[in-house]
Request: fold
Amino acid sequence: MENTAKQLKDLLTENLNNFLVFKKILEDYEQKIQPYELLDILISLLQKKEALSKEVEIFLLSKLAYICENIYEFKKAFNIYKQLFISTSDPKYLEKTEKLQILKKIERLKYVFKKLNLKIEELLKLYTESLETNKSLELLLIERYKVKKSEILESVKNVYQIPVIDARDLTKYSKMPQVLGVKKQFFLDALCVPLKEKETGRIYLVCYDPEDQENIEKVKKVLQLSSENLVLSFAIKEDLMDIVDNYFSEGSLSIPEEVGIEEVQEEEEIEDVSLIDSAIVQLVNFIIEEAYKRRASDIHWESLTGKKGLQVRFRVDGECFHYSTIPEHQKRQVISRIKIMANLNIAEKRLPQDGKIKFRTKEGKEFEIRVATLPTVDNNEDVVMRILGGIEFKQLEEIDLLEENYQNFKKILDYPYGLILVVGPTGSGKTTTLHAALKYLNKPNKKIWTAEDPVEIVQEGLRQVQVNPKIGLTFAKVLRAFLRADPDIIMIGETRDEETAHTLIEASLTGHLVLSTLHTNSAPETITRLLGMGIDPFNFADALLGVLAQRLAKRLCKECKEPYTPSEEEIERLKREYGFHPTKPLTDEMIEKATFFRPVGCPQCNDTGFKGRMAIHELLTPDEELKDYIIKNKPANEIRNLAITKGFTTLKQDGILKVLKGETTLKQVLAVTVR
Reply:
C-alpha cells in the first residue's frame, strides 16, 4: 500500500500540467489507496500552488472536500466547499456547504459513524428525525443501531478533548445550591448545568453543545461561576435533562452534600417527628422511587460499623447491587423516617419490627412496601423493604411454560375439583403463575375466593381477602370461612402449617378446585413434605391433580444478545447437565438445530446482557402408579425416578431446553437449579 501511495504521488506530480491525464490517474488509483493516505497526497500537491493550473487546483480541492465529507470530517469539507464557491461561484458548492452546515454540528460522533459506516443521506435523515421527535441524535443511535452509550461518550471525548459525564455515575457529584435559585426552564433551554465532584470539589459545567460559547457564558454569568476551577464537560441531551429534573425534584442527585443536616451524637435517640429534617424525607422518598423505577424487588438499608454510614442496596432480577452510601450523621434520621412511614416504634431498637407503607410516586403510581427492621451489632439497625405491587400481571400463555407442560397444566386446571400446588422458594414467581391460572379460570359462571398475604395483584371477578395474622385472620381461618361462602375455586396464598394443609385436602375432596403454594425445592419433595405434616396419604393421593415447581432464571436481553457457536466442551457440559432421560433425551440433532446466544450488554439492560427473568418449571401430574407411591409414602427420589419414566422433565432439563430456544444461558440455569 505504501508503494502504491508513492507511485501515485510521483505520477500525479509528473502530470500536474496535463489535467486530463492527471484526472484519469487519480480516478484509477482512488479505490486502491486508503482515504487518509490519499488526503496526505492531495494536501502535499496543493502546497505546490504555483505549479498548479486553476483547473487542477479546483479538481484537487473538490476531491479533497469529497474525501473529508466521506470520512466524516465535515468542518474541513465545509471550509473547502466554501472556498470553492468563492473561487468558482458554482451553485453546486453552495448546495454542499448548506448540507455540511448541518453535518458539522454532529461531527463529534464521527468515530461512531465510522464504526457503523453510515452514509451522508442516513445521517441527514437521522438529524431530521431527531428534530421532529425531540430526541437527541445520540439517543437515536442507541435505539436504532444498539450503540453503547460508552462508545458515544468516548467519541465526543476524543473529538473535544474534554471530560464526559454519564447520568449513571451521578453518585460522584452533588448539587450546586445557586442552581435552585434560577428557573428550571432556563437550564432545560440552555442544556447546560453545573455539577460538583464530591471527592475533589471540582466544578463541571456539563453541556450538550460545548461549542456554543455564547450559551455557556450566559449560564456562567447567571450562576456567577468563575472560570477558575471550572471544567467544561459533555453529556447527552437526555442525561442533561435528567440532571436538571433531579435538581428541581423532591429527590436529589444521588445523595448530595447539601441535603445534610446537623450531625447528632451517637447516643442521641430521635423520638420526635419534628426532628426529622425535610431533606431526609425527600431523600428516603427519592431512593424508594429510584428502586421502583429500576424494577427492584427489595431495598436493603444496611448500617455499616465504624461510623461508615448507611449502605443502600437494590435487588434487581434476583441480585443485589450497591446503589449508594448515606453519611453517618444522616443514618439514624433515615431509619427513623422509614419507621415513621411504617407506623413502627422509633424508640425501639433492640427488637425486630414489621410494618407496611402505602407509597405513591410523583407520577401517581401506588404500591405497598413491606418493612422489616432488625437490630445489628454496635447498637445499629438494618431495614429491608420488599416492594409489592410491582408484579407483572400475565396470561397463562405468557409464563414461559414449554408446550407440553402448558397443555398438561391447562388440562388439570379444567378439572372441576382437586388440589393444584405451585411450589418454589421465595421470589420464584409463584404468585404470578397462580394469578395467570386464575385469569384462565376466571369466568362469569365461577365463584373464586382468594386469601393472600399481601394481595399483590387485583383481578376483577375474584373475591380477594387480605390475611391478617395479628388479629387472628390466618390462612386456615379464612379457608374455613371460604367453605361456607359457596366457592367453586379457592386460592390460598401459602400453606404455612398443618391445619391449613389438612383443610386444603378436605376442600379439594368436597367438590372445590383448590390452588395453593408451598416453599419446597421440587415437585416430588412437595409430596414427601406434605405427608411429613401428617396428611392422610389416601386422601392426598386422591385429591392431588398436579404440582408445578418453578424457579426464575435471568433472561437474555432481546436487544443485544448475540448468536455464537458453542465449543465442544460446552456441548458436552450441556449434555452432562441434562443427563439421561428415557423418553425425552437431548439429541445431537436438537443441539445442531438450536441457535445459542450469549450476553453482550447495552443501555437497555444496563450493560449486563440480561433483562428481566424467565420461569423454568417441572410439572408432576400423578397417574395411578404414582398415586400408589404416594399412598406407600415412598421417598422423593423414587417418586422422581418413576415420574421421569413417564415423561416428567426436571427443572434443570426444562431450563436447558430453554437454553436451546435462545432465551437464557446454561450458567443462569445452573445458578438456580440442583437437579
